[in-house]
Write a structure and sequence with these properties.
Oligomer: heterodimer
Strand content of chain A: 15-25%
CATH topology of the largest domain in chain B: Alpha-Beta Plaits
CATH superfamily of the largest domain in chain B: ACT domain
Strand content of chain B: 35-45%
Helix content of chain A: 25-40%
Shape of chain B: elongated
Number of domains of chain B: 2
Shape of chain A: globular
CATH architecture of the largest domain in chain B: 2-Layer Sandwich
Strand order of the largest sheet of chain A: 2-1-3-4-6-5
Structural class of chain B: alpha+beta
Number of strands of chain A: 18
Number of domains of chain A: 3
Largest interface: A-B, 17 and 20 residues
Largest sheet of chain A: 6 strands, parallel
CATH class of the largest domain in chain A: Alpha Beta
Helix content of chain B: 25-40%
CATH superfamily of the largest domain in chain A: Thiamin diphosphate (ThDP)-binding fold, Pyr/PP domains
Radius of gyration of chain B: 18 Å
Chain lengths: 554, 161
């Protein structure tokens, strides 16, 4: 069997239903084989978008997302997509074409050393030089990407390998002596964690993306209710507990609610689950939760003790560990702590000035009111933070955002991947004008494949978050942040692609526009002309401690 | 504090690049690195000398362990036999040859090549011994030094596998 046919057959065996990608000379054989396959290929208009789409698909479904690209520029275009997936532990398999093995290393046309380039941003990667290794390599990739702490795997496929004749003997499972993720937590450690929790007077749970990945939100919610303890998440942890739950304090960190940050800072025990204590969540690490002991549950042992000192580590899968941990807990109300937190919650709600023009926060509130079940993607910057603050996520995998790498241009192509997986769900990309422009070409993909995602652009004609920093910390010296273009219209751009475009300038028009956009059977872009100088508050300045938040009087 | 880390890795192309890249990316400093095949031809052994506090070394070991091609990592800084091999090309004259041979003998070093105006001397031992010998040779004029970097093995019955 031709190598290319074996590849496609192997993908079918892995249960792959959708592939995102762009063909080219080096991967043309694989595309030829794909022509006869039942796998649906979504032709994105940029390889970066193909990987983001596969990444979005993976995050929303929990299954491996697959992207194709050709050699050279096709492969290098995938780099940002791969790095995004890597930072947020998303299981993506990227297959790239490569020049024939006889030319590898010769600076051939469209040659790039993509396995070398992506070494630090993949969980693992391969350059297949012998057709005999082809099928085993694919199996390894599909075994490695979703297991343990998930991550992207790249397979570079020289053209001659895809032409070569191979015998199709696809292994059921392969042995990887250097890869043995630990799923079950140590029983004694879990018991000790239970004791620490029972003793704590001011416990909080800090949940990260690992809870979502491990499908542990039910167990986490149950743990919170059993202790009982309030739950704070990282940005990636949104959805670990329904944010409408009375014990949810939303997300903490640079733009978290004050009550969430205060609760962390004053706690005496943090039960951290599937979280890596990123600087955006902890603030100045030397002043992070000074009185708190930390229990850290994570599947990746390298995360334990990396950023903060941990009092009790438990290496294992969040779901399995939490299941065991709950058995050691007895309900004990901590009245004083609860009252304190509820007081903070009342005193410091998230808020914004409602007078004046069109407020971005208002738009998010309306989206949430009207479509609380929609799957939301975001871009990066102010749009992302407002979305995180005002869209109360009800279930895991509902809020999909580039947390670690902070990739502008992620949300829109990711929404394409998600809508492909869930054609019957409402999928909304909450975008900024700067971010949207970074992958706007995907409107063509949407129109071409009938992917009816809705892009709501909070258009302030600025690189808003950078502008906010310049306003607050750089004496309003707005260096290179103004994106105002004479007469540029996202409505017309959308129409130019054959999608539907709308422009909204007044708060009174928001609700109708949103409803109409969702009802229309087509990809829709709404250009919301928001107040240009609106800022995201509260805010911990970069390098500040979590409780040192700045806010604007409202 | 310097640590000696031994790692068993798959004997595959690119593994050295992965390990070296990991050290560079995470800001760990490699002082020396030696690689060679083990009793199994599919497995190589790396001996890495790295400087850092306990926290750094813990991260080094954990991050190394995360690499799929790395099978086993162990910090063997204490209670280990450590050896390094060096080849030193040193200038000689008719007058000082005898003296150099004598010093080499004291260090149990061997002269492995003799030319009209130079020797190549082979010395094995722990790092301090090799350093001491090289320092002594400086007075005669060192033309070239090649060192393998340290290899090490823990004493006793226990084996890294």
């Amino acid at each position: 069997m031709r190598g290319a046919d074996a590849i496609v057959k192997a993908l079918e065996k892995e249960g792959v239903k959708h592939i995102f990608g762009i063909p080219g000379g080096a991967i043309i054989e694989v595309y030829d084989a794909l022509f006869d396959s039942g796998i649906r290929h979504i032709l994105t208009r940029h390889e970066q978008a193909a990987v983001h789409a596969a990444d979005g698909y993976a995050r929303a479904t929990g299954k491996v997302g697959v992207a194709f690209a050709t050699s050279g520029p096709g492969a290098t275009n995938t780099v940002t997509g791969i790095a995004t997936a890597y930072m947020d532990s998303s299981p993506v398999v990227v297959l790239t074409g490569q020049v024939p093995t006889s030319l590898v290393g010769n600076d051939a046309f469209q040659e790039a050393d993509i396995s070398g380039i992506t070494m630090p941003i993949t969980k693992h990667n391969y350059l297949v030089t012998d057709p005999k290794d082809l099928l085993r390599t694919i199996k390894e990739a599909f075994q490695i990407a979703p297991s343990g702490r998930p991550g992207p795997v790249l397979i570079d496929l020289p053209k001659d390998v895809t032409i070569a004749d191979v015998e199709f003997n696809y292994p059921e499972k392969v042995e990887l002596p250097g890869y043995k993720p630990k799923y079950h937590g140590h029983p004694r450690q879990i018991k000790r964690a239970g004791e620490m929790i029972m003793k704590a007077e001011r416990p909080v749970i800090l949940a990260g993306g690992g809870v979502v990945i491990s499908n542990a939100s039910q167990e986490l919610t149950k743990l919170a209710e059993t202790i009982p303890a309030y739950v704070i998440t990282s940005l990636m942890g949104k959805g670990a507990i329904p944010e409408t739950h009375p014990l949810s304090l939303g997300f903490a960190g640079m733009h978290g609610a004050k009550y969430a940050n205060y609760a962390l800072q004053e706690s005496d025990l943090i039960i951290a689950v599937g979280i890596r204590f990123s600087d955006r969540t902890t603030g100045r690490v030397s002043d992070f939760a000074p009185d708190a002991k930390i229990i850290h549950i994570d599947i990746d042992p390298a995360e334990i003790g990396k950023n903060v000192n941990v009092d009790l580590p438990i290496v294992g899968d969040a779901k399995l560990v939490l299941k065991e941990l709950i058995k050691h807990i007895k309900y004990r109300k901590r009245k004083e702590w609860e009252e304190k937190i509820e007081k903070w919650r009342k005193m410091y709600p998230l808020k914004y000035r409602k007078d004046g023009g069109l407020k971005p926060q208002y738009i998010i509130e309306k989206i949430w009111e009207l479509f609380p079940d929609a799957i939301i993607t975001t871009e990066v910057g102010q749009n992302q933070m407002w979305a995180a603050q005002y869209f109360k996520v009800r279930r895991p995998r509902q809020f999909i955002t580039s947390g670690g790498l902070g990739t502008m241009g992620f949300g829109f192509p990711a929404s394409v991947g998600i809508k492909t997986a869930f054609p019957d769900k409402v999928v909304i990309d909450i975008a900024g004008d700067g971010s949207f422009l970074m992958n706007i070409q995907e409107l063509a993909t949407c129109v071409d494949f009938g992917v009816d995602v809705k892009v709501f652009v909070l258009n302030n004609m600025f690189l808003g978050m950078v502008r906010q920093w310049q306003e607050l910390f750089y004496d309003e010296r707005y260096s290179a942040t103004c994106l105002k273009c004479k007469d540029m219209s996202f409505e017309k751009i959308a129409e130019g692609f054959g999608a539907v475009g709308m422009t909204v300038e007044k708060p009174s028009e928001v609700e109708d526009a949103l409803k109409e956009a969702i009802e229309i059977d087509a990809p829709v872009v709404i250009d919301f002309r928001v107040e240009r100088l609106e800022n995201v508050y509260p805010m911990v300045p970069a390098g500040g401690a979590l409780h040192e938040m700045i806010d604007k009087e409202v | 504090m310097r640590h000696t880390i031994a790692a068993l890795v798959e004997n595959k192309p690119g593994v050295l690049a992965r390990v070296a890249g990991l050290f560079r990316r995470r800001g760990f400093n490699i002082e020396s690195l030696a690689v060679g095949i083990t009793e199994k031809e599919t497995i190589s052994r790396m001996t890495i000398v790295v400087a850092g506090d306990d926290r750094t070394i813990e991260q080094v070991t954990k991050q190394l362990n995360k690499l799929i091609d790395v099978i086993k990592v162990s910090d063997i800084s204490s209670n280990a036999v450590e050896r390094e091999l060096a080849l030193i090309k040193v200038s000689t004259t008719m007058q000082n040859r005898g003296e150099i041979i004598e010093i080499a003998n004291i260090f149990r070093a061997r002269i492995v090549d003799v030319a009209r105006d130079s020797f190549i001397i082979e010395i094995t031992g722990d790092e301090e011994k090799v350093n001491a010998f090289i320092n002594l040779m400086r007075q005669y004029g060192i033309k070239e030094v090649a060192r393998t970097g340290k290899i090490a093995m823990q004493r006793g019955n226990k084996a890294l596998e």
